[in-house]
Target: Cation/acetate symporter
Amino acid sequence: MSQFAINLLFVGASFALYIGIAIWARAGSTKEFYVAGGGVNPITNGMATAADWMSAASFISMAGLIAAGGYANSTYLMGWTGGYVLLAMLLAPYLRKFGKFTVPDFIGDRFYSRGARLTAVICLVIMSVTYVIGQMTGAGVAFSRFLEVSSSAGIWIAAAIVFVYAVFGGMKGITYTQVAQYVVLIIAYTIPAVFISLQLTGNPIPPLGLFSNHVDSGVPLLQKLDEVVRELGFTDYTADVSNKLNMVLFTLSLMIGTAGLPHVIIRFFTVPKVSDARWSAGWTLVFIALLYLTAPAVASMARLNLMTTIYPSGPTAEALAYDERPEWVKNWEQTGLIKWEDKNGDGRIQLYNDAAPAFTATAQERGWNGNELTVNNDILVLANPEIANLPGWVVGLIAAGGIAAALSTAAGLLLAISSAISHDLIKNLINPKISEKGEMLAARISMAGAIVLATWLGLNPPGFAAQVVALAFGIAAATLFPALMMGIFSKRVNDKGAIAGMLTGLVVTLVYIFTYLGWFFIPGTNMLPNTPDNWLFGISPLSFGAVGALINFGVAYAVAMVTTAPPQEIQDLVESVRTPKGAGAALDH
Model:
């Protein structure tokens, strides 16, 4: 059986499973559409939340980022997992006790304001639409490689599958589909990692293999990797981070951005009890850990495999001849994600750090005239089985897993957008008298509209799409997270303070990020060079969400202190949400 047929079999079987679940779990009411009826088991919800969270960024991009940046990019692991600790301790149980359907629902009622609800809807839609671009683009990349269709066709196929199980099933259909997607993606991620760990270290457990000896050289794997990349002008893979302030802010931005993501938060409204919300967050961490503990090993081994493929006799010997390049390179060249340019005319593939001035003389001595191979970081996980010459069925698994990761998060984001529009905008702001049947129709229409918009943006990504994760997390961190925290833990913050804080956090964060990463109106251009020398106090645009959050807190409290305190019934409501006494009997439903 050909590799294409194997890929088609695995991907087709997973699609059939998702559609079958959607038909079985079709939503029949608004409560089922928004929160799956509120009766999801905490373990099931933890697995679905893990799939919702582990997007194409986690499955495809994170290991690529770590492979490229080494220890310095381990901040992604710390920030993203740390966010669930915040969710479990500070947000999930209290939001569940409040008993609402959406994040704007909580903000609108807690701050007793239509303006606060509308502001939350705007922040949610901007963040979710931005984030979903990356999911659709990731699905297109996976389809284009494994099903041998164009990236555009892949995005349309992804949109069609999401349409079936999200529009008809709502949260109920998405929840059980995401459980299946988690199983698919975690198997797809770990099985190739086990094979590769065995090949390189003899240890079948990838996290342990990362700290084992390299089979061929007999030295620790990370030491071997450091030696290889150092010989090619790159910074040591295990080198420490020089800008500690930026590292701390970036980690904090990812943590509070995670805790403020609306498509993750709404999952904690689907469980029966307040205690279940906390347990759900705990189970989510367990399920995420299975992938996140494996990712550093996958990244390190992928980087070493790539380097030893290009320099089979070592980095100081001759590089691989282009005509002798392995089949996996030829396959990925067709997608445009691997490119080669023979700059010195020797017909060989020179891969090294030509941006390192200290290495220039060494490169010239070896007859090199610039780096000749460009490898997109996003392909390393998807290409890993082919790089390591693993069986065809493992490649098929990776295909199904990569697509599942993109689709699961896309569905969660689209549901958050749909709920904000149908429930918060239409039901609560525009037409409060709408019937449940009418609201269900509005929810499905808004979901379909969101899918069409996400597909169009995936096909025509704006200039900032490459930095979609930074923008999405920055917005969530600077707008929704502070509002939720103040809504739960401060009786003094009022409607004016919340609105002023969210708008200030949104504007400041957008201006800072787009100043260095390119304005929306001029795609691909920069107002200022995106270098540490130009950053304010050395703070990267990727890290600015934490600063935006601090500004949000400061503005909200300042405005609240000089304006009227919230009504007494709102203060009593905040107290009842925080206080365990009576277990919130009236609200715990």
Summary: The chain has a mean pLDDT of 85. The domain at 3-301+390-583 is CATH 1.20.1730.10 (Sodium/glucose cotransporter). The longest strand covers residues 338-340. Residues 392-430 form the longest helix (39 residues).
